Automatic annotation (TrEMBL):
Gene Ontology terms, MF aspect: glycosyltransferase activity
A Pfam family matched in the record: Glyco_trans_1_4
Taxon lineage: Bacteria, Bacillati, Actinomycetota, Actinomycetes, Bifidobacteriales
EC assignment: 2.4.1.57
Domain Glycosyltransferase subfamily 4-like N-terminal: start-end pairs: 10-171
The keyword Glycosyltransferase belongs to this UniProt entry's keyword annotation: yes
Protein's name according to its UniProt entry: Phosphatidyl-myo-inositol alpha-mannosyltransferase
InterPro entries: Glyco_trans_4-like_N, Glycosyltransferase_grp1
Entry's Gene Ontology BP terms: carbohydrate derivative biosynthetic process
Length: 380
């Protein structure tokens, strides 16, 4: 259950669809109770409410308008669900209304995804927690995708949670990469060392930090010969980054939005993938996508979500929110290309992380939580 739409494929949507696919493959019947969705990507999708667009946590997102009770009752009566799994924090206007009308025998599970970017977002979460206090008492088991998300759940809803990471489908990512073929990957790589950034062009994702790091590296003469960049994605800062890149000697290509099916080939073409996000990350799915695709080395901004995903690997994490960040990042980029043994060590550690986050491992843990939630209902 998710208040937002499935018409886009952001982090939470990816979590839902990746996990849902794995559960269906295991023989479970899975349905999706979501906000307004015009083009369902899978079967079993129920649009429970209309949505409106708002800004929150540095992102543009959709929130539901009041979900009709009649539609809620119809879906619940027909579904006769053993478990309802809500993505949290949730709105009292849709998911909260569904929770309150769930059958007493239905197990309720919530997964927290959010990492607030500041005091305002945290206080807003606390207000929402008080509004949802009544419905949240109905929830049997709580999951968080990382420690920072668990801290948010504790602070805003007063609940403890089990940390189970976001899943990625390693086999599917590699299959998409292999379908692209080595010729396509080689073309994307081009001549010379290739650095890739993939993400939204908004301030907290750090695209401007990366461009400034390249500028600093050029001034110091520490960048490898032939280095070129691909910076893929779209967003309000894209044009500014394009203009800034014109002042650099290092070639930077801006291909715009990259589809999910094309993403693995682009990441596989990267000798180095850099994601210098400054905050607001509860997890780092894009880091894992780069690893699964076969990128050489991943460097990430040292925010709590990315630090959790990389298991505190200091050599792969770059200090952010510091005036020296561009210089630090430039030096780290230079070290990746100047010290192959060091870079291979990072690559080995990052590849070893994939089994921890693969959807089959995550689905095992989620099934355990579902079983406990159903048991909790019987006990009560």
């Amino acid at each position: 259950m998710f208040d937002d739409t499935l018409d886009v494929f952001d982090g939470v949507q990816q979590h839902i669809l990746t996990l849902g696919k794995a559960l269906r493959e295991r023989g479970h019947h899975v349905e999706y109770l979501v906000g307004q969705t015009a083009h369902p990507p899978v079967s079993g999708v129920h649009s429970m409410s209309r949505n409106m667009m708002v800004s929150f946590n540095g992102n543009r997102m959709r929130i539901p308008l009041l979900a009709p009770v009649r539609g809620i009752r119809k879906v619940l009566d027909e579904g006769r669900f053993d478990v309802l799994h809500v993505q949290a924090p949730y709105s009292p206007l849709m998911a909260g209304r569904v929770i309150k009308r769930a059958d007493p025998g239905t197990g309720l599970v919530a997964t927290y995804h959010i990492a607030p970017t500041g005091t305002m977002q945290l206080k807003g979460g606390q207000v929402l927690g008080r509004i949802n206090a009544g419905s949240h008492r109905r929830i049997d088991q709580v999951i968080s995708v990382s420690k920072v998300a668990a801290d948010y759940a504790r602070t805003t809803a007063g609940v403890e949670s089990r940390i189970i990471p976001n899943p990625i489908d390693v086999a599917a990512i590699r299959a998409n990469r292999d379908r692209a073929g080595t010729e396509s990957i080689d073309r994307l790589h081009g001549q010379g060392p290739h650095l890739v950034f993939l993400g939204r062009f908004v301030a907290r994702k750090g695209a401007d930090l990366l461009i400034e790091a390249i500028a600093q590296g050029e001034r110091r003469g520490i960048l490898p010969e032939g280095l070129h960049l691909t910076m893929a994605g779209k967003g309000p800062l894209l044009e500014r980054c394009r203009q800034r890149a014109q002042d650099l000697a290092t070639p930077i290509d801006f291909p715009g939005f990259v589809t999910e099916s094309d993403k693995p080939a682009l990441l596989a073409s990267a000798d180095l993938a850099v994601f210098p996000s400054t905050g607001g990350e509860s997890f780092g799915i894009v880091l894992l996508e780069a690893m699964a695709s076969g990128a050489g080395v991943i460097l990430a901004g040292d925010n709590p979500g990315y630090r959790s995903t990389l298991q505190d690997d200091e050599e792969a994490l770059v200090r952010v929110n510091d005036p020296q960040t561009p210089i630090i990042l430039a030096e780290r980029i230079a070290r990746v290309f100047g010290n192959p043994d060091w870079a291979r060590g990072i690559h080995r550690r990052q590849t070893a992380l994939l089994s921890r986050y693969d959807v089959h491992s995550v689905a095992d843990q989620v099934e355990e939580v579902y079983e406990q939630a159903i048991q909790d209902r019987f006990i009560r």
